[in-house]
Amino acid sequence: MADKKAQLIIEGNAPVELPVLTGTVGPDVIDVRSLTATGRFTFDPGFMSTASCESKITYIDGDQGILLHRGYPIEQLAEQSDYLETCYLLLNGELPSKEEKAQFVSTIKNHTMVHEQLKTFFNGFRRDAHPMAIMCGVVGALSAFYHDSLDINNPQHREVSAMRLVAKMPTIAAMTYKYSMGQPMMYPRNDLNYAENFLHMMFNTPCEIKPISPVLAKAMDKIFILHADHEQNASTSTVRLAGSSGANPFACIAAGIAALWGPAHGGANEAVLAMLDEIGDVSNIDKFIAKAKDKNDPFKLMGFGHRVYKNRDPRATVMKQTCDEVLGELGITNDPQLELAMRLEEIALTDPYFKERNLYPNVDFYSGIILKAIGIPTSMFTVIFALARTVGWISHWKEMLSGPYKIGRPRQLYTGYEQRDLPANRD
Ligand code: CMC
């Protein structure tokens, strides 16, 4: 895959020949690994033009607005697959047969409960703690409970940890919500499917078990599929970097959750609703658009823009359709926040500032509106992103560990002091 070469000429030196690697689809990459022999490094803060690894899991064409998992378009997965089948696909590379799917679902169900003692962990948190703060702590703490699957060099252990994480995330996420509400935590129900079980643990109580709406469960499942993976984003790269040191999978996923929390990444779904609240009314949109364009104002239009997509985010298109289905099911015909969001989208999409910079609505723009309609509190939005993304994180972690890899250790362009001595007299 390296039949092309690139030449790097550094003034006054012989040209350095660098292999050019070609993937299945997507741009070629220049392999700069041999550059250190010349005593030089590349400089690329924010990884604007750096491929940090080789991967076979997910492909994004940001110019065309294409997202493929193991080659399958996200739109087809959202329509024709379900979350657990997508999990199997991401983890194993192929769609499961009927028997493989049944076995996979059964294994996941086998692991839905958490160690009973894990509950005591929650009591250490304030009831008003942000659920993402609790998630970072509790998911990291899983490594203190499941010692029998921590040998990262054992493929069997890696598999069991992956299953445990996918199975337990809905339980932990719902426990986080119940803790904040002061309600009893609900045990998982293995007679329900993945999304139904999550909604059951979120909204039912021991004294009132209501049936879960199939339309809302289907929408929840779609939201999980749409968030399942997104190649080398900030949180996935964090998981890979943490994993490259040999850290255990629960610690790595906790690191991923922390990276996801930021408003530039997974925290944007919560931030979109906060922004819509702040804008308040259609009459204020122009003022906020002006703020978003002002370089001296830190305000950004949350839910707009993406590092890779310079076209529509295909997940946002599916999300918008799902949004209509959910609002229809719930009989919400004139939601003021949705109206505000639609108007904002319309104005932003025709504004030269946003057009010139290819700033389109991303997945987070609509997900918050659907989640809110389902009854999920805003503070849980990013938790749901983390729940769904866990399979992507763990697929990347497993992919890295199953091949040759090195500890991730970037270098730097140092611009601090040269060596200097402490002053002799410091009185
Ligand atoms: N509102 C206003 N201006 C924006 C926005 C925005 N949402 N996003 C980018 N820009 C401007 C930015 O100021 C810059 O302008 P200029 O060229 O004049 O300096 C230009 O567009 C390029 O943006 P950038 O910040 O260099 O792009 P990036 O790739 O570093 O950042 C981003 C990508 C997603 C962090 C950014 O677009 C953003 O902060 N968006 C809002 C937060 C958000 O919705 N995040 C969710 C991302 S999708 C879910 C996920 O994968 O986590």
Question: What would you note in describing this structure?
Answer:
- It is a single chain.
- The protein has 427 residues and is mainly alpha-helical.
- The chain has 2 domains: 3-50, Rubrerythrin, domain 2; 110-403, Citrate Synthase, domain 1, CATH 1.10.580.
- It contains 17 helices and 6 strands.
- The protein has helices spanning 74-80, 83-92, 98-110, 118-122, 131-141, 155-181, 194-203, 214-226, 234-244, 249-260, 268-279, 285-293, 314-329, 336-350, 352-356, 363-374, 381-401; strands at residues 4-8, 16-21, 29-30, 58-61, 66-69, 72-73.
- The strands form 2 sheets. Strands 1-2-3 form a 3-stranded antiparallel sheet, with no helix packed on it. The chain has a 3-stranded antiparallel sheet with strand order 4-5-6.
- The longest helix has 27 residues, at 155-181.
- It is globular, with a radius of gyration of 23 Å.
- The protein binds carboxymethyl coenzyme *A.
- Carboxymethyl coenzyme *A (CMC) binds next to helix 16.
